[in-house]
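Here is an idea for our session: we take a single protein and study its fold together. Which protein we use is up to you, so please pick one and set it down. Once you have written the record down, we can walk along the chain together:
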Amino acid sequence: MQTNFLARLPKGEDVLKAITEEFRLRSIKTGSFSLIGAVTKVVIGFYDPVERQYIFKEFNGPQEIVSCVGNISEKDGQIFAHAHIVVSDRNFLCLGGHLGEGSLIFAAELFGVESLESDLVRQYDAPTGLMLWAKSPTK
């Protein structure tokens, strides 16, 4: 049976950690989510495919979350949230990319959906250098 849920995330918490915790509390290991709200600081990343590493930049000050979407799967046996975010500042200018740790919630409302595909895990993908979805060999 598929589970959907709504949750308000705590002010001042790390966005990724708070999302992960909501899925962990419900024992959901695969799923997807969307998030709206605002942050007081956001860390956004861009994956450089040549260097095979993320480049992160921190933006301080209030930002509106225009869009934040992502998925949940297992990575190294732990529930792992992968998200992309678009934020706007007081001048209505938008920035977006891979959501990084250290992004702090001002206010956030989460809509989570459990996936019926329960055997996805993150594994290293040599062609991209990323940890991508793969079918779990043990399930």
Observations:
- The chain has one domain: 4-135.
